[in-house]
Amino acid sequence: MDDVLHIASLLVHCRPEALAALKDNLCLLPDLELHQESPAGKLVVVLEAEHESRILERLDQIQNLPGVLNAVLVYHELLDPEGEAR
């Protein structure tokens, strides 16, 4: 398969009292950025990976972190080596 970059955006919902610990845990995961958060326990997370399977693995990891109620994929894009969307 040719070189592409997968960009994915997730909405992660956790118990509000677990928000700080969840953010700490998410920061330990590679190729992940936190973009927005709500005191109600909602986070917007962006992932970058070379393979779609890595996005799915990371989503599964996030869903299993303590305090997470749900994590869903809301956006997925493929970029070619020149940075153009496919």
From TrEMBL:
Pfam families reported in the protein's UniProt record: NapD
GO annotation (BP), single: negative regulation of protein transport
Main location: cytoplasm
Highest taxon of source: Bacteria
Keyword Transport found: no
GO MF entries: signal sequence binding
GO cellular component, one term: cytoplasm
Keyword entries, A-Z: Chaperone, Cytoplasm
Compartments where found: Cytoplasm
Summary of subunit composition and partner proteins: Interacts with the cytoplasmic NapA precursor.
Job of this protein: Chaperone for NapA, the catalytic subunit of the periplasmic nitrate reductase. It binds directly and specifically to the twin-arginine signal peptide of NapA, preventing premature interaction with the Tat translocase and premature export.
Entry's family note: Belongs to the NapD family.
Protein name according to UniProt: Chaperone NapD
Species for this entry: Pseudomonas indica
Gene this protein is translated from: napD
